[in-house]
Amino acid sequence: MRTLWLWLAVFTASVVSANPITVKDDAGAVVRLSQPAQRIISLAPHATELLFAAGAGPKVVAVSEWSDFPAAATKLPKVSSVNGIQFEKVLALRPDLVVLWGSGQGQRDAERLRQLGISVFLSEPRSLETVADSLLRLGQLAGTTPQAQRAAQQFQQQWQQLQQRYASAQPRLSVFVQISARPLLTIGGRQFLSDLLRGCGGQNVFADVSLDAFPVLPEQVLRRQPKVMLSLGDNTTALQHWQSWPQLPAIQQQQLYALPADPLSRPGPRLVEGAKMLCHTLAQARSRY
Prior knowledge:
By secondary structure, the chain is of the alpha/beta class. It has helices at residues 2-18, 45-53, 87-92, 106-115, 128-142, 145-166, 192-199, 218-224, 249-252, 262-265, 271-286; strands at 21-24, 30-33, 40-42, 60-64, 78-81, 84-85, 97-101, 120-123, 173-178, 185-187, 202-204, 213-215, 228-232, 256-259. It folds into 2 domains: 18-145, Nitrogenase molybdenum iron protein domain (Rossmann fold), CATH 3.40.50; 166-286, Nitrogenase molybdenum iron protein domain (Rossmann fold). A 6-stranded mixed beta sheet has the order 6-5-4-3-7-8, with helices on both faces. Helix 5 (128-142) packs antiparallel against helix 6 (145-166) and helix 6 runs parallel beside helix 11 (271-286). The radius of gyration is 22 Å and the shape is elongated.
């Protein structure tokens, strides 16, 4: 009997090794692991939140400088910042998977990590559906599929409930999202916040622009005639310069709002929390029209 169990153990191990974990990242690259990752490094705040929500938190051994949620992430070593990745520290931690943001220097950093023999997952969710899918793929890589499935299902259910309640609300409100006052920057149709606005019964006034973020002139905003102006931050001070443009419907009705930045700017599981705040805000604004 003991010999039989030993044989079964060897057979099972051989099957696992013969069937590596294979997923595609958000850049379309195939990520292969011979077994679930045991030492994971997250190099983006949203990726940190995704990993913890997917049940992989105990396997995360280091994070990026701005990974401040959940609280457990703040206690981990920091191996990247605005100055870049500290590759020596990354190598010293012997990760079997590194998750990093796909934009900016992401592709270049990913290639360098691969050259160092480290498996890489580029993460850049562009919609709420992709966030749920990211949870599942990261859970698969970490061997925490049951937790990831629960998190993805809860995320999708909450988002569907919000859409059912708000997506068809009338009137549909045109919204200008200001992500910076100087320089004046806004979001385009590729940015996931445009998805949130649609689900909440709003419409990004620059949704026709196929960019994530880009500079605009006040005159361009004036031509779009937004009924709501939204800033991501602690208060509406950043929007007060628009008082010089009384022709704007949002100014005439004083529909200027500020919402917390992180739940609306990080493409992770907290987007549903951000969506709830956004939907309630637009419902409040809708009552003025």
